[in-house]
Amino acid sequence: MRVLLLLLSASLSATAVAQSVPAPIDAVDPMIGTGGEGHTFPGATAPFGMVQLSPDTDATCALRACYGHAAGYRYDDPTIQGFSHTHFSGAGHSDLGDLLVMPQAGETVRMDPGDAKVPGSGYRSRFDHATERAKPGYYAVKLTDSGIAAELTAGTRVGVHRYAFPKGRAAHLLIDLRSSLYDYPGKILWSGLHLRPDGTLTGFRETRGWAPGRKLFFAMRFSTPLTGHAFVDRDTDVPYKGFQGPGRGSDAVAEKLGKALEARLDFGTLAAPLEVKVALSGVDEDGAVANLAAEPGGFDAIRTATTAAWTAALGRVEIDAPAPMRTSVYTALYHSLLAPSVWSDADGRYRGPDDQVHAAKGFTVRSTFSLWDTFRAEHPLLTLVQPAATTNDVVNSLIESRRNSPDGILPVWQFAGRETWTMIGYHAVPVITDAYLKGFRGFDADAALDAMVASASYAPYGGLGDYIARGYVPIDKEPEAASKTVEYAYDDWTIARMAGAMGRKDVADRFAKRAGNWRNSFDAKSGWLRARLSSGAFRTPFDPTAINYGSDYTEGNAWQYSWFVPQDQAGLFRLLGGDAKAIAKLDAMFDYDTSKLDYSHAEDIAGLIGQYIHGNEPSHHVAYLYSYAGAPWRTQERLAQIVASQYKPTPDGLSGNDDLGQMSAWLVFTALGFYPVAPGSNEYVIGRPFVARAAITLPDGKRFTVVADGLSPANRYLTGVRLNGKPLTRTYVGDDEIRSGGELRFTMGAVPDKIWGSERAVRPFSMTR
Fold it and tell me: What molecular function terms (GO) are annotated for this protein (predicted)?
């Protein structure tokens, strides 16, 4: 009897502990990154959703002053200007903020946002963070000036607003098609509003901003009929004579075309909250109407469905860690699942980079490809924590985009199907290679390889013609030449890897040779990656600390880019003079005294630890490089330093732009204890874990578990590593080993093990080991 009582007591105790741990969805805090330099948004969206329905605190800033508002919302702003339907998560640049909606109460409807410093001067409203609630798929806030309680939720292609108006006051909506994130001069080319006989409001807008000629269509329905409306064009210029939109003609109760449209919608005095359901489409207004029908139900139904989707997506990774770390990691996973976002309509139609409407068969078209950032960890993470369909959709979307591209190449930085030509490299290539080598086969591999080779052979792009002819990009012909040379060489290596796996020896041999081109811009005498002139000489004067846009490097300097040889770190270390000198240079990077340097002119340079810049991507693999020099214990020290200083569960908890999930994916991988230094190698370099236990449900349903025995702030070193019960002597784990399922168990201690991982034979992959 006593044994039974003890067992019952233990069972109840375990149940109480389990119940006290929040579910993954409840551990997420969408406010993380909304302050500081994170540039994330707190609003409602579904996993990879087309709609990101979120508050904009300032959509009227001048172009050069908008950096801090790249996501529309900034935590320290005092007012909300309205709620718009499209946002980037953590981009360093911006656009979007489409279809701004602002509820108003009373007799007067204000048509301009007004001054944030002057309450009541416009339709914007003050708010208090104490009234905000943000969860995956849901956002709520009380608008102080009007007393309106606002709630937002979103499905894949729809967003739903719910507004509770003060009792006895007339309800209105103001729709401002003029409003947009980043105030590009003349951004709104044309727009339209059409009120259909059934009360559905449809419309469109064509913009020229970061992406030129972008078209977006919408359909909007209301839970109660309109009692009145007005469509107003605030523009006095000569109308744009290009794209005119579909028009509704005699089918429309009312319509208006123009450059600066607003709609005032009246609903009278309401006894219940007003629900507003909005669907988007990149195709046409009828496509938006069809997308409305494809996700039936009102606010509660959409919220329930999206909550279930987030519960399933986040639940694929089970995390046991102290509450602050658990919140940080689950929020990082959440941010990693926002893009690439859905772009095709429910019927498969989508607008391509040629501005024509196409139909996808058998997959969902994705867009929002921040590839210079996300090839590193974001896309490799998706191959582990998402169903296979997600990665296959991504690769199919890249191939499809190339088919419809006027230039015949893969996307560089694309959103809403439009190319921005932002950043460098052809980094769709490693995304495809990484997927193929990991066994994903839901796409045409031959078409993929053709697209990869075409992208790597497109001479007009970024000095690529000179790179092909000379083996490097000359700085007197192309800016950021040093960075472009090494990034092209890495991409070339991934082409060689995929071609080799496909039996295409001719292609493999050609690009394997090009993969060594990084040496052509590396100055072995000084130990730095440097830009070369057409004459072959290195450009002078040379300062490894200098950071200037359009100079030798992309968003960085020689300190960061001299380490970018993911495919051949061993070859790089030999040029540096061996392991000891490589370690000394790594230490010098982290320990550099930057107190006398001023990088304030460079927006993306944030999160400095010496010359290591965690707030920008070129540094992201560097802490793991000690393992390539036989000193993984130094990697373990640096990772503890980075995680402690660069991440925290607060609005300013990201040290730099999340960049569509890359900053967050870095934390997810690092918390698990390994990281993909060279996507395409099928290896993950072991670091050290930051969670006591994690279990990943892999795409095929198998489970891979990570356990950290003895983990504590004092125990930051690995004293033992076992894979499926057997000692692991090497400092990497294979992708195939993870996909087979099993357990990776770490033993943590306060004293480093300087022997483990020191032998050359146990180090991670290098092209010239």
Answer: carbohydrate binding; hydrolase activity, acting on glycosyl bonds; peptide-N4-(N-acetyl-beta-glucosaminyl)asparagine amidase activity
Cα 267–Cα 268–Cα 274 angle in degrees, nearest 5: 50
Find out whether 86 and 45 touch, Cβ atoms under 8 Å: no
Task: List all residues 6 or more positions away from 735 whose beta carbon is below 8 Å from its beta carbon.
Answer: 437, 438, 682, 683, 684
Q: What is the dihedral of CA 679, 328, 660, 386, to 10 degrees?
A: 60
Q: Is the dihedral of CA 718, 627, 631, 330 positive or negative?
A: negative
Show Cβ contacts of residue 13 under 8 Å, excluding neighbours closer than 6 positions. none
Tally of CB atoms within 10 A around 516: 18
Q: What distances in angstroms separate CA 340 from CA 66, 346, 367, 439, 625, one per listed residue?
A: 23, 17, 5, 21, 29
Domain ranges of the chain: 26-310, 319-349+601-769
| Residue 414 to residue 220: CA distance in whole angstroms | 27
Q: Reply yes or no on whether the pLDDT at 100 is more than 60.
A: yes
- 26-310 is a CATH 3.40.50.1220 domain: no
The verdict on domain 319-349+601-769 having CATH code 3.30.2080.10 is yes
pLDDT per residue as tens digits for the range 394-434: 999 999 999 999 999 999 999 999 999 999 999 999 999 99
Q: Which of 375, 319, 308, 438 is nearest to 699 (CA)?
A: 438
* Mean pLDDT across the chain: 94
CA angle 75, 76, 78 (to 5 degrees): 105
Q: Tokens representing 194?
A: 């059409």
Beta carbons of 488 and 473 less than 8 angstroms apart: yes
Cα separation of the two ends of the chain: 65
258's CB contacts (< 8 A; 6+ apart) are: 190, 191, 192, 233, 235, 239
Question: Cis omega before residue 479 (within 30°)?
Answer: no
Question: What's the pTM value of the predicted model, to 2 decimals?
Answer: 0.95
From residue 653, give the alpha-carbon distance in Å to each of 628, 643, 645: 30, 11, 9
Percent of the chain with pLDDT over 70: 94
**Helix-, strand-, coil-residue percentages of the chain, each rounded to 5:** 30, 25, 45
10 Å Cβ neighbour count for 536? 10
* Residues near 79 by beta carbon (within 8 Å), at least 6 away in sequence: 57, 58, 116, 124, 125, 126, 127
